[in-house]
Amino acid sequence: MDPSRLTEYAHGGGCACKIPPGELEEAVRGLLGQTGPNVLVGLDAGDDAAAVRVGDLAILSTADFFTPVVDNAYDWGRIAAANALSDIYAMGGRPVVAINLIGWPRDVLPLELMTEVLRGGQAISTEAHCPVIGGHSIDDPEPKYGMAVTGVADPDKLLRNDAAEPGLPLTLTKPIGVGLLNNRHKQTGEICQEAIDTMTRLNRDAAAAATAAGLKAATDVTGFGLLGHLHKMCRASKVGALVHRDAIPVIAAAREALRDGFVSGGTRRNLDWVRPHLRPGADVTEDDLLLLADAQTSGGLLVVGELPGHPVIGHTTAGPGIEIR
C-alpha cells in the first residue's frame, strides 16, 4: 500500500466508525458505573463525558480515537483532536489538559508521518488553549490517533443528554454529510475541503453560547449520526422529537456522494438501529434517512434550545420516537 494514502490502512472504513450502537449497548448491558456522592454524570447516563464534582467544579473526562479519515496526516491529527475536545464542549465545559493516544504500524509507515499527526493534534489543542502534556503509544497493525481530555465546568451549568424537555427547539451547529465525503475520499482520493474545515472547527463557541443562554441539554453528533444521537438524547430525557429534513444543514458535496453510493457500513448500521424509533413522512425517502444517519466525525452540537446564527431543525415533543417531515 501507498504510505501517502493513510486511509488505505483504516480497515474500519472511511469514517470514524464506532462499534455499532446496538452491539455496544448489548455488550455493556448490566454493567453499572461506580457511584458516589460526587459523581454528577457516570456510565449509566450514556453522556458525552463523565463528570465528577471536586470542590466547586465539575471535572470532565473523556477519550476518543480512530483510524485515518483523510490521507493528509496533519489534517487527520487536527480532526481527531477537535473530535476528542468536542465531548468536553458538548457537556458545557472547557478543556484544560489533553494526552495523546496513538497506535502506529512502525514497520510500515514512517515515523515522520506520525510526527505530522501529532503536530496536527497539537495545533488544534493550542487553538483550544488546552495543553498536550503527555500520552501513550503502541505498535499497532493499523494507525489510530486521538486524545484523552480533561475539562472543567460549572456543576450548575452542565449540558446533559438527559435534560431535554418537550416543546423546545432543536438547534444543530454544523452541517452533516462528512461521513459520506470521508468514505468517498477513502475510495477515490477526492478531497472535500469544506468537510475538512467542518471537522476541524471547534465546538467551543457554540458550547459557550449554550451555557450563557442557560440551556440545559445537548450532545455532539458523531459516529451514531444525527438520528442516532438524537434518539439517545430523547430516550435519556424521556421525550420525542420532530425534525424537518429541509432545515438540516448539509454539505452540498455530500448529496453527490450519496447519489453516487458512498454510504458506509457504519451509516447503514446506524439506520438499522434507530429505524424502529422513526416515523418518517410519506415523502421521506431511504436516501433521506441514510443522510440523516450518516456517521459523522467531529460533528456539531445538537442543542435543545435556540442559538443565534445556527439553524433550528425541529423541536422536542412529549411523545416518544422521532417524526421526520
TrEMBL record:
Q: Can you give the residue ranges of the PurM-like N-terminal domain?
A: 46-153
Q: Name one GO molecular function term.
A: magnesium ion binding
Per UniProt, Mg(2+) binds at: 48, 87, 220
GO terms (BP aspect): selenocysteine biosynthetic process
How, per the record, is the cofactor bound?
Answer: Binds 1 Mg(2+) ion per monomer.
Domain spans labelled PurM-like C-terminal:
183-258
What EC number(s) does its UniProt record assign?
Answer: 2.7.9.3
Its name, as the record gives it, is Selenide, water dikinase
Species this chain originates from: Mycobacterium vicinigordonae
Q: Identify the gene encoding this protein.
A: selD
